[in-house]
Amino acid sequence: MSSAPRTARRAAPARRTPQRQRLVRPQPEPPAGPVRSWLFVPGDNERKQEKALASAADAVILDLEDSVLPAQLPAARRRVAELLRAPRESRRPQLWVRVNAPSSGLLQDDLRAIFAAGPARGVVLPKVSSAAEILQLARQLSSLEAAARREAGSTRLLIIATETPAGVLSLAEYPAVLAPLPRVRQRIAGLTWGAEDLSSALGALARCDTSGALTFTFQLARTQCLLAAAAVGAQAIDGVCTDFREPARLQQELEMARRDGFTGKLAIHPEQIAPINAAFVPTEAEREHARRVVAAFAAAPAAGVVSLDGRMIDRPHLLQAQRVLAAAQRDQEAT
Ligand code: COA
Ligand code: MG
Predict the structure, then answer these.
(1) Which tens digits make up the pLDDT trace of 291-334?
(2) Ligand 1 binding pocket includes 37 (Cβ within 6 Å)
(3) Nearest Cα residue to atom 38 of ligand 1
(4) pLDDT band at 277, cuts 50/70/90?
(5) Ligand 1 neighbour 63 (Cβ under 6 A)
(6) Alpha helices, H only, the chain
(7) What long-range pairs does 247-253 form, CB within 8 A, spacing at least 24?
């Protein structure tokens, strides 16, 4: 990428200015691969936005929805547009915008405000009740991208898929609806789940039982989200831990999230970022095990199945080990 201007300067030395302007060295891109931490910040709160942008979050979500009072929405849209327009030395964290729900009547104006400004990495769509709503937004984004002369498909999507009862039920349809639409599928960076709005829609008095475990309804929402994400090739992002003063609770949620296959988590407070980033990096013990699995297969190139420490390992174990090593490699490159 940098070779073109250098060649041009060599070919035309007379055009060099005596005091060459110092170029701002771009910061490294966020590590390719999963976006681990997604920090929400109200669209109208400048102080928190500054802090969020200076944080180690992989992505910041500028919120135009639930954390913004209706009377403040026009101001929040202007502020979000300003942030998208402002030049940045670093492409970290990625900038995303949570728009209002498809059923809100506010979505069009949110999108107009975003596209009138600089490009956002993506749009977070809340309270989704059906795959059809995603298809409709994808069509709108395609027209807006064409009108703004932006690359088709460059505005990605994070779907909050379990905030309405219909949304939870519709997750099972995602694979079939999206299978014939690879361009829509590629636009979807991730699926995530939320319990707050679902509780309120159901009139549920609690999300957890007396032992602190999610009740069946919320486990179902979380699991449907996890399965649908894997089935459509998107990242599964765990929902927020609203108890932001309880690091032990966050840690417990992170352990369960990683155990089950989530590769990132939403955050609402800067103090949640470091534990989230750390949680989605493989531990030394996991790396070591993965290296041994890969080595066991390398030592038996003709075998589809081998044994390691008295356990059978076959192709799914090899794929998982390769995934762990790729994540470890990304982590090393980013530090
Ligand atoms: N992003 C960036 N900075 C944040 C932040 C966030 N999400 N949340 C808090 N901070 C900052 C505060 O500004 C404060 O810094 P300061 O004292 O220098 O101003 C510092 O972190 C400590 O904040 P704290 O006092 O612990 O929290 P709070 O009581 O001010 O705010 C919340 C608590 C929950 C209201 C706040 O964290 C928040 O607004 N979170 C995002 C909410 C949201 O977007 N929800 C929608 C998605 S569910
Ligand atoms: Mg909400």
Answers:
(1) 999 999 999 999 999 999 999 999 999 999 998 998 888 877 77
(2) no
(3) 268
(4) very high
(5) yes
(6) 3-11, 46-53, 73-85, 107-116, 131-147, 165-170, 174-178, 182-187, 196-202, 216-232, 247-260, 273-279, 284-298, 315-334
(7) 247/271, 247/275, 250/275, 250/276, 251/275, 251/279
